[in-house]
Every structure is written in structure tokens, then in C-alpha cells.
């Protein structure tokens, strides 16, 4: 087991957050369909559980950062470059600062920091594998960063 593998195993049973981009789906009725791109911040009681594509997080543990119906181009939220935040339905705000060059770093690299007023988190680039199921969207979500 190398040091990267050790860090991955160690985080599996810990609480944390994931920043996810979800595949676009069609929304709207017949003749009115548009693409819907979605970016989510998900709190996980157990990060390993949130690795499971069939796991459905509680509504209170999901903050929708961006929804877009722009057609013809990818329109996910830009997670990198300066402090940003997202408020969960519980009223808790999670803020983060991810380096502007984070996507050029190796998977699992330390690429920034986060904070929810209760504690600080290290930000890591994730591997873009499929993660949680968000049934309100009926689409696949992929791991971009984890804290």
C-alpha cells in the first residue's frame, strides 16, 4: 500500500464533503425539453458510503451549487479559484478555496481548503468516478473534489 492508497483507505470511514458534477439530463415536457447541468456539494457522514453510486444522501445533506439549462456546451460550476460557499437546507454554510490549477494536479493531491465554521478541511482532487445517486435528477454524479 503506497501513501496515496493509505490516505484513501483512511478517509473511507470519516465524515466529509464531496463536490460533484452530474451528467446533464433533459427536463421539461414534450416539445419543451432542455439540458440540465447540475453541480452539488454533498455532506457525507461516511465518505466511503458516498462512494457508492446507489447511495442516496438526505435532502438536508445536499446543497445545489448550480443548475443550468445552457445548451451546446458543458456548463458545470467552476469550483476552483478563490473562496466560494454553499448553504445547506439546515442553514450550515460550507466554504472552500480550491487552487486555480487543481485539475492539472494528480488525483488525491491536496489542492486547497474548506471550512464550515465547526472545523477546517483539506481539499483533495478526486478521481471523477461515479458517486452518490441524486434521484431528483435521475442522473449520474461524478466526484470532482473531496474534503
Would you mind describing this structure in some detail?
The structure is a single chain. It is built from 2 helices and 9 strands; from the N terminus they run αββαβββββββ. 29% of the residues are buried. By secondary structure, the protein is mainly β. The mean pLDDT is 84. It has one domain.
Gap between N and C termini, in Å?
A: 22 Å
Number of strands: 9
Portion of residues within helices: under 10%
List the secondary-structure elements in sequence, H or E.
HEEHEEEEEEE
Helix/sheet category: mainly beta
Count of individual domains? 1
Main sheet summary: 9 strands, antiparallel
Number of helices: 2
Q: What is the percentage of strand-forming residues?
A: 35-45%
> What does the average pLDDT come to?
84
Shape call: globular
Cα Rg: 15 Å
Give unreliable regions as ranges: none
